[in-house]
Write the structure tokens for this entry.
Amino acid sequence: MTEILVEACVDSVESAVAAQEGGAGRIELCDNLVEGGTTPSAGTIAACRARLTIPIFVMIRPRGGDFLYSDIEREVMRHDIEQAHRLGADGVVYGALKPDGSLDAGGLEDLIAQSQGLGVTFHRAFDVCRDPAATLEQLIELGVQRVLTSGQLPKAEAGVAAIAGFVRQARGRIGILAGGGVNEDNAVRLVAETGVREIHVRGTVKRPSAMAYRNTQVPMGAAYTPDEFVLTVTDASRIRATVERVREAGSGS
């Protein structure tokens, strides 16, 4: 079998170092993997770069949820691309769609222009686009380096047929990176049945916290049930109401 590049998806410096020690050929560096990954901090990028010799591809995603971005969000993404490049990233990972599920080619072209000198991976926004065959051709035309996909199904194992179809369609013009539940037990079969030359893995284990004192009455996060089509956003009227009430209480003291 031709050598297969294993990309490790990581969300910390410790995990990035472990991925390199384990033989990963590249990392996708993220934050907030519970929502599919968002942009990591500048400190995380810099600390990874100081410790890694393998390529670092940085997730550029300003929030969880869908892949329909506003002008302000795209501005944030451009700044994050610039910062990732300055901090030594080798590539960036992003995606953008229109409300009808088609590729936001204009928005993507703008991000690609900001990514000069960096490799570009289009992430699993591809798996929720309306017409993957047409989208793949557009990505090729735009010069995207690779596409991360599970075959438009929750796990790559279930999407084998579709992934193989994307590899045939690509004909070497763009890389197809198989991801989504890929692990040591199914990787060989996935490669053999799809023809991909790159796979995307997590490879995680659970490790208990070293905290001896634990106040279990104060959780730092709410229970999370993913819903990509409902965004949690700050409401100005609720902020205003809070400000007004504390001001009123303060003026009456």
Summary: Residues 164 and 194 are 4 Å apart (CA to CA). The chain has a mean pLDDT of 91. Residues 5-201 form a domain with the TIM Barrel fold (CATH 3.20.20.380). The radius of gyration is 20 Å.
